[in-house]
Amino acid sequence: MSARTVIEPRAAFYGQEYTYLATSVMKAARATAPRDEVPLYAVDDLCVQVGARALLTHVSLSLAPGRVCGLIGHNGSGKTTLLRVLARQHAATHGTVRFEGEALENWDARAFARQVAYLPQTPPPADGMTVRELVALGRYPWHGALGRFTANDAQKVADAMALTDVERFADRYVDQLSGGERQRVWLAMLVAQDSHCLLLDEPISALDVSHQLDVLGLVQHLSAKRGLGVIVVLHDINMAARFCDELVALHSGRLLVRGTPTEICRPDVLESIYGVPMDTLAHPQGGVPVCYPR
């Protein structure tokens, strides 16, 4: 199957600054089809514009559940704007976005916060908080600020820390951890939310190669083990090709091309995305495409 290209322009941006978001449970009445047949997200003719500047232009795409989808493209291509629209952090100027068949604006805030977990590029400060306390914040959508923290909540927190391998520093302060360790803790918080979808904005941008592999390996593991849909913004095409099931490339606010890593990692496609001549070769272990500039 060849990579699919779509081009068109015009976009917009409406911003409400927010720190992080969690997620929700679909009502039975909404489940008109088996879960795996309903797109995780369905985006139709989405435009986002701020002033005279178009940030997203007539973007239409459908994202499947239970897969890791990487959003790629040059700086300013619209990746983060698209992710924030999906997280209900920015309103669309035009078009519709549906999550599991329901328009985003129809979701109750707490219900959505139980279903979709969002981690921004710069998470809020966690000064003075232990790892266990931060992970426990993932349970907030289930009981609110004044709700009782139950034995079930405590078990969800313990399970999340075990799954993400942060138990060993559960009682340490978050601000004393390394960058890679902190990212694992934030992912543990998202897991504790019991969400079905993770939205991650450049989760490896400030990490060295070792921690990049560690964090993205964990994301891939969580998707496979829990059937989570993951949409992640990535700048490194090789990391995206290695850890994502599908890649969606944006250019100047437009959906340029989407496909599997093998379909995207071709010299002609890569040059259309990044604007520089590139070549590829197959990794000696596993055959995953490796991309490099000429």
UniProtKB/TrEMBL annotation:
GO biological process: one example: iron ion transport
Listed InterPro entries: AAA+_ATPase, ABC_transporter-like_ATP-bd, ABC_transporter-like_CS, P-loop_NTPase, Siderophore_ABC-ATPase
Name of this protein: ABC transporter-like protein
Tagged with keyword Ion transport: yes
Membrane topology, as annotated: Peripheral membrane protein
Gene Ontology CC: plasma membrane
Family: Belongs to the ABC transporter superfamily.
Keywords assigned: ATP-binding, Cell inner membrane, Cell membrane, Ion transport, Iron, Iron transport, Membrane, Nucleotide-binding, Transport
Subcellular location: Cell membrane
Record Pfam families: ABC_tran (PF00005)
GO molecular-function term, one example from the UniProt record: ATP binding
Record domain ABC transporter: where: 41-277
UniProt entry tagged with the keyword Amino-acid biosynthesis: no
Main subcellular localisation: membrane
